[in-house]
Amino acid sequence: MEHMENWVQLSTTGVVKEIFDFMVSLAKLGGNVASMIKIFK
User: Fold this and answer.
1) What is this structure's pTM?
2) What are the CA-CA distances from residue 7 to residues 2, 11, 21, 26 (Å)?
3) Through-space distance between the first and last CA atoms of the chain, rounded to whole angstroms
4) Using CA atoms, how far apart are residues 32 and 38, in angstroms rounded to an integer?
């Protein structure tokens, strides 16, 4: 049963990391778009 709990914990951590990486890349993309808009204005 402990093995199952470890697996759940691992997969949860993986999901959180995926979401975090997605947020970071989204923030970078937002920053790039914002600077591009500044250049064009």
Assistant:
1) 0.59
2) 9, 6, 21, 28
3) 60
4) 10
Tokens of 8: 């759940």
Q: Which two tokens stand for residue 33?
A: 């778009």
Q: Buried (b) or exposed (e) across 11-21, using 16+ Cβ within 10 A?
A: eeeeeeeeeee
Mean pLDDT by 10 residues, the chain (41 residues): 76 92 96 90 74
**CA 39 to CA 32: how far, in whole Å?**
11
Task: Calculate the CA 29 to chain-centre distance.
Answer: 12
Place of tokens 């947020």: 23
